[in-house]
Write a structure and sequence with these properties.
It is built from eight helices and six strands; from the N terminus they run βαααβββαβαβααα. By secondary structure, the chain is α/β, with parallel strands linked by helices. Strands 3-4-2-1-5-6 form a six-stranded mixed sheet. It starts with a strand and ends with a helix. Mean pLDDT is about 80; it is low at about 135-140.
């Protein structure tokens, strides 16, 4: 799976990363890259983080690689949204786009990629990290999600998920 992240969007939507950004923009970026690198050690997905450089960036798009994470800074005059759209269009594998920007989510959905909001992705990553450290706790959380703690099935009419919801749930499971 290829995960494309709108960097500043995720930093500003995550309570943890937002604290680092208050000190400086660079610390916020480094905290995000560090969090994604530690996540990547557990799950081994291809991760690309895209940052806006349209106001203060260079003349050309800048690419970097740090701890297995591909980092792209858009060039001056180009927004990160445009770079993300270009990456989604050129996708070669299953793609998950992380952004709370509705325009990007709609674009990704129309191109066959799955979009997840930044807070939902942050919660899924946090949950994955907690499950890795507390393996026994996972069974209790699954029971709580079903609405019961004693193993019985939840009663009531079944509700089918839409294609979009199914796609999102499948992507979250892979995280």
């Amino acid at each position: 799976m290829h995960i494309i992240i709108d960097g500043y969007n995720l930093i500003r939507q995550s309570a943890t990363l937002r604290r680092f950004e208050r000190f400086s923009l660079e610390r916020g970026r480094q905290a995000l890259i560090s969090a994604m690198a530690s996540y990547n050690k557990r799950c081994r997905h291809r991760i690309t983080v895209v940052f806006d450089g349209w106001e203060g960036g260079g003349e050309a798009e800048e690419r970097d690689r740090q701890d297995g994470i591909e980092i792209i800074y858009s060039r001056r005059g180009e927004k990160a949204d445009d770079v993300i759209k270009r990456l989604v269009q050129a996708k070669s594998a299953e793609t998950l786009v992380v952004s709370s920007d509705r325009d990007i989510a709609v674009f990704a959905g129309r191109r066959g990629a799955t979009a997840i909001s930044s807070p939902d992705f942050d919660a899924a990553i946090s949950k994955t990290a907690m499950q890795a450290s507390h393996a026994g706790q996972a069974a209790d959380e699954k029971d709580e999600e079903r609405g019961t703690t004693d193993g019985r099935k939840k009663k009531g009419p079944a509700r089918r998920h839409s294609r979009k919801e199914k796609s999102l749930l499948a992507a979250i499971k892979k995280l």
